[in-house]
Each structure stands twice: as structure tokens, then as C-alpha cells.
Write a structure and sequence with these properties.
Layout: E1 6-9, H1 15-24, E2 30-35, H2 38-50, E3 54-59, H3 65-78, E4 83-86, H4 101-119, H5 123-129, E5 133-137, H6 150-170, E6 176-182, H7 188-191, H8 203-215, E7 220-223, H9 225-236, H10 239-247
Parallel strand pairs: 1-2, 1-4, 2-3, 4-5, 5-6, 6-7
Length: 253
């Protein structure tokens, strides 16, 4: 979608979400920003306002299904949402380290349920208006399971397949759906990694790539291309050829 007037971004208090908010901030545009850290979210909101955007920010956990739905529908009633970016996500590394049962459940709750809680309240309104765009934040980790992050990989794979399916399901209603699959991007999530991250990308560049892909209504926005090519190739190979290699890969947490 070109030039959306009202944009929702979850997980907007840092990382890619913050970069997207700043990139989209402009006079005449309304941004709906959510996050879990009050101070960081307000700092992002003020930076966007300084660029001329109107901003409504709320500290809401995306796992709060009813609370998020109530806030989204109220804001949509004030000015219809054009673009919803379901960006909020966590990994084991942003918690206590390691994917214990509790950690795995928390990852699925935020990365998968949080996406559903973000887009499902808006889909009926998009369909009724016969316009709107949805961007779901998956990951290149969603193309092949890595031993160091089982729940993270699985949650992002589910988001990717959900988005690809949703794109076809909503196309006839005039609603656009894109799946975003970044590699390593500078963020609080990657800051805890204690291993080399190939082709680590700055958040500003990632935001520009995402925005360009959304403007072109691309089904899949995957970057950087060398990492994308590598994980795509790995996903094609039988596990018997890749398990031993991936077992030596660094683990998150």
C-alpha cells in the first residue's frame, strides 16, 4: 500500500518496530504504537511527533487479547487503520536464557498468539472497507528449525505460513498481506547473542527494506539475501544431511 494514513505497529518501543515508526513518521500520518516499556515507548512516540506525526501510544502486552482488541477497535473508530504491522516478538535470549517449558510457552504466546491478537480484531473491518494491509513479522529462522531456538523457529514458521495463507484468503476482499522475514538485525533481541551474526543489519536499513516491500505489496519480504539464500537452501535439504551441521551451531540464551 502506498502512503498509508494510519499505521499500527506493535513492539514499537525498540528494534525494528522503533525504526519503522520513525521511518513512517510524517505530517498528516497517524501512528498507533504499542510496547511494554513505558519510558522507551514514550521516547519513540515523542520522536515521531517531532517529525510531524500524530501518535497514539499505549503500553499493552500483545498477549492481552481483550485489552488489545478494545484499544485497537477504539482507535480504528477514530480514524481507520490502513496498515497493521504485527511486529512484537521475543526469543529465549530476551528472557532468562534457554528454552525451558515456561520460556517456550512465553515465546509462542507473544510471537504467535500476539500476532493473532493484533490482526484478528481488524480483519473484519478491513474486509468491510475492502482495503487495508497486514504485515506479519516472521524471521529467516522460520524456514528451518535450529537446535538453539526450537520454540522461536517454530513460532516464526507458524507466523510465516499463517501470513502466506491469509494473503490468499483475503486477496479477493482487497486486503493485502505480507510476511516479513528478517535475518540478524541490531536490536535488544540480538544484543544478547554471544556468537557471530553474519550480515548483521542496522534497524534503519531494515525498516526501509520493509517499507519498500509493503509499498509493492510483496508476499514475502526477506533479507539480507545471502542469509535468505542460505536458509532457503538448508530448508530444501533432508535432515539427514543437515542435522550434524546444525548441531554445532551456536545456541541462543
Amino acid at each position: 500500500m502506498h502512503d498509508p494514513g494510519c499505521i499500527l505497529i506493535t513492539g514499537a518501543s525498540s528494534g525494528i518496530g522503533e525504526a519503522l515508526a520513525l521511518d513512517y513518521a510524517a505530517p498528516g500520518r497517524r501512528l498507533l504504537l504499542t510496547g511494554r516499556d513505558t519510558a522507551r515507548l514514550e521516547a519513540v512516540a515523542e520522536a515521531c511527533r517531532s517529525r510531524g506525526a500524530e501518535v497514539a501510544a499505549a503500553v499493552i502486552d500483545v498477549t492481552d487479547r481483550q485489552g488489545l482488541a478494545d484499544w485497537l477497535l477504539a482507535r480504528d473508530g477514530e480514524r481507520p487503520v490502513d496498515l497493521a504491522i504485527a511486529n512484537a516478538g521475543i526469543s529465549a535470549g530476551t528472557g532468562s536464557g534457554g528454552e525451558s517449558e515456561d520460556q517456550a510457552r512465553a515465546i509462542f504466546a507473544v510471537n504467535l498468539d500476539g500476532v493473532l491478537n493484533t490482526v484478528q480484531p481488524l480483519i473484519p473491518r478491513f474486509v468491510a472497507r475492502r482495503r487495508g494491509q497486514i504485515a506479519l513479522m516472521s524471521s529467516l529462522a522460520g524456514f528451518r528449525g535450529f537446535p538453539g531456538a526450537p520454540a522461536y523457529c517454530a513460532s516464526k514458521a507458524a507466523v510465516r505460513l499463517y501470513g502466506e495463507s491469509l494473503r490468499g484468503a483475503l486477496a479477493a476482499a482487497g486486503v493485502e498481506v505480507s510476511v516479513v522475514c528478517p535475518g540478524f538485525v541490531v536490536s535488544r533481541m540480538t544484543a544478547v547473542n554471544r556468537f557471530p551474526m553474519p550480515f548483521l543489519m542496522e534497524t534503519g536499513r531494515a525498516a526501509r527494506l520493509i517499507r519498500r516491500g509493503l509499498e509493492r505489496n510483496r508476499a514475502r519480504i526477506a533479507f539480507p539475501w545471502p542469509t535468505w539464500a542460505a536458509v532457503w537452501f538448508l530448508s530444501l535439504l533432508p535432515p539427514g544431511l543437515t542435522d550434524a551441521l546444525l548441531a554445532r551451531a551456536p545456541r541462543k540464551g
